[in-house]
Every structure is written in structure tokens, then in C-alpha cells.
């Protein structure tokens, strides 16, 4: 009998009109880092959400992109804020990733954070932080494509990234 911990992931093929879960499983084969995107709303209340759809767009000018689900509680604040931060999480920040992915009303309460230099909350001890000015917001189906102009980037090369692969948190394994 197969060990349930070592069963092979489901294989399949997605085609337009197929079960969306199959597409999600296929997309889950791309290992990603985990981020928390943060901002202050017009009343100076902090908002944030876990996101793994994040990428560099351009070095000149310095642009990045993060995808925000349109139904997320933080979507309106993030897409209307003039500035936001992308906090790339390290292995010790898995609890923050989980907290910012739930509907918890007090996501910032137990988190180590402070206002960043350019007007967005910055999570302490992150692997890297990109403080951005909103450059553009585009429609992306059920997501907003939030493009930021990077004003400041900081990082700690001694930390390892928190990874997400096939629906689970992972760590790097070096030989």
C-alpha cells in the first residue's frame, strides 16, 4: 500500500471549459515566493493581503506587478492607495502569511511592522521589501493588476525565502 505522505500529485490537462481546479493545479506547479502587500487607506488604517502573484516588470523604469483578487477585503484600499509595499516573506514569517490570507480583522496587531519611508506599512524581518508608488491598475479578469514604481528596495541576504508549491509552504533544500 502506498504511503499517503508520498503519493504522487494528480496529473491532468486543462483546456478551456475544463474544471478550473485542474488549471489551478497546473498553475500550482510553478513554485513562488510569498508576499504580503500592504498600504494605508485614506483614514490611515493599515491594510494588507497575502499574494504570491508577484513579478518584476521593468528595471528602467523600476516597475513591479502584483495581482490582487477583486473580492479581497483589502482590494479597494490597495488599488486606490498612492503608495504600497510588497513584503517578500522569509521562512519564519509563515504565520504572517496565513494571518494576512484570512478574513482576520486585526491582521497587523500581532505583526512586527512600522510605517515605511514612503507611506506604506513595512513588515519587520522580511526577506525583502519594495516600497512603491502606484503606477497603474489594470483589469485582469477576477484580479486587479497593480503595477508599482519602486522607490526603495531593501533586503536581507542572510534569510531564506518562504515558498509555496502545489498548495503547500516549502523551504529551499540545497545539496
Give the secondary structure arrangement, pairings included.
Elements (H helix, E strand, L loop, with lengths): L19 H8 L4 E2 L1 E6 L5 E6 L2 E6 L2 E8 L5 H6 L2 E6 L5 H7 L12 E3 L5 E3 L4 E13 L2 E13 L7 E3 L2 E3 L5
Antiparallel strand pairs: 1-11, 2-3, 2-6, 4-5, 5-10, 6-9, 7-8, 9-10, 11-12
What do these coordinates show?
The chain is mainly beta. The chain has a single domain, classed as Pnp Oxidase, Chain A, CATH 2.30.110.10. Helix content is 12%, strand content 41%. It has helices at residues 20-27, 75-80, 94-100, and strands at 32-33, 35-40, 46-51, 54-59, 62-69, 83-88, 113-115, 121-123, 128-140, 143-155, 163-165, 168-170. The strands form 3 sheets. It has a 7-stranded antiparallel sheet with strand order 3-2-6-9-10-5-4. A 3-stranded antiparallel sheet has the order 1-11-12, with no helix packed on it. A two-stranded antiparallel ribbon has the order 7-8. A hairpin with a 2-residue loop joins β9 and β10. The longest helix has 8 residues, at 20-27. The radius of gyration is 17 Å and the shape is globular. The model has no long low-confidence stretch (mean pLDDT 88).
Amino acid at each position: 500500500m502506498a504511503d499517503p505522505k508520498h503519493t504522487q500529485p494528480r496529473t491532468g490537462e486543462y483546456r478551456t471549459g475544463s474544471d478550473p481546479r485542474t488549471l489551478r493545479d497546473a498553475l500550482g506547479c510553478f513554485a513562488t515566493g510569498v508576499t504580503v502587500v500592504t498600504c494605508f487607506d485614506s483614514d490611515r488604517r493599515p491594510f494588507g493581503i497575502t499574494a504570491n502573484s508577484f513579478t518584476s516588470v521593468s528595471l528602467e523604469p523600476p516597475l513591479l506587478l502584483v495581482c490582487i483578487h477583486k473580492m479581497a477585503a483589502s482590494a479597494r484600499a490597495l488599488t486606490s492607495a498612492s503608495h504600497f509595499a510588497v513584503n517578500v516573506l522569509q521562512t519564519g514569517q509563515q504565520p504572517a502569511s496565513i494571518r494576512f490570507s484570512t478574513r482576520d480583522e486585526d491582521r497587523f496587531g500581532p505583526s512586527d511592522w512600522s510605517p515605511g519611508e514612503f507611506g506604506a506599512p513595512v513588515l519587520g524581518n522580511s526577506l525583502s521589501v519594495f516600497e512603491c508608488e502606484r503606477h497603474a491598475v489594470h483589469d485582469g479578469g477576477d484580479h486587479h493588476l497593480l503595477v508599482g514604481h519602486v522607490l526603495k528596495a531593501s533586503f536581507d541576504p542572510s534569510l531564506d525565502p518562504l515558498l509555496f508549491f502545489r498548495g503547500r509552504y516549502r523551504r529551499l533544500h540545497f545539496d
